[in-house]
Amino acid sequence: MKKLKLLTLASTLISTVGAFTAVNIGKQAEAIVVTGNPNDYIVPRGIGDGIVELRLNQNGNALLCTGSLLPTGLHILTAAHCLTENKIPGTIDVENVRVNFNLLTGRNSVESSTYYIHPGWNGDVSYANDIAIIGLDTLAPIEADRYNIYRGGDELDQNFTVVGYGLSGNGKTGSDPINFPGGIKRYGRNTYDYDSYLRNREANAFKVLGYDFDSGLERNNNPPGDTGLGIDEVISAPGDSGGPALINGLITGIASFDTRFNQGRADVNDRIDFSFGEISYNTRVSYYANFIDDVLAGKIAATRTVPEPSTVLGTVFTLSALTISSHFKKKVKQKL
Known about the structure:
By secondary structure, the chain is mostly beta strands. It has a single domain (14-306, 318-334), classed as Trypsin-like serine proteases (Thrombin, subunit H, Beta Barrel). Helix content is 4%, strand content 34%. It contains 2 helices and 22 strands. A hairpin with a 2-residue loop joins β16 and β17 (250-261). The protein starts with 13 loop residues before the first strand and ends with a strand. Mean pLDDT is 73; it is low at 1-31, 215-220, 307-325 and 331-336.
């Protein structure tokens, strides 16, 4: 496996927000924040329709994440932090997950009641293993795209496409929940820069993939020397948690968390808001290929099965992102 490519930190500390507020790591699961006008990055119906919106019911609260349909047509790949209680490993805290396929013919919703959480997930995104699979109660719509996973070890320096249903906004000011709320599928591109994260690096090395949000200016760039992909460049934001990064149509990463440097380095401001200069991390799918294969082959028992999933009312995203920067479960307001 190739040599670790680490953040060029010097003595600079990193400030992060995680999927769980207590984790304090860059926000978990996000929405896509773009370089240009967010309306120019919307995915048309009928394209990428196996990339799904996950509406979760957690103790009466409506949450949003993103996921991808795997080749069986019965399994959705997503992030573990979307399904589990903060800081409690293996404790699933959602009563129901509704999987929404936005097809050319309209929306098709499928219920789920079976969940597979990676056994190494401990509730802290800096230790990696932020990966889970949702089992559908019925077969996904036949017209929905199925996605295979990336199995190579050469992701670094490769461009990828990121897709998610989270908040959007512009890199100069960050995510904008008022004008660009979640629930709309957007896409963009970036390039993988890192295969480890400074905090708990011994635990997460080679298990994560990181990338920065370049403005085109060297002062918002890390590592130096590559100022990005121009107008195509994006970063994940709240609601994108669990969403895919794709190389040649293969799932390469799963949106997990965001972070930034302290002391004003690279970031355009002093907070995590998915603006230029911040850094996003994905779960590295190739590392977890055996786990995915074994779940799909029926070799791993479900972490939990809900006998009779309850119905969840439709929801509309109106709230701001979670305080964690795991790519992020987003809390939404229910509407009849």
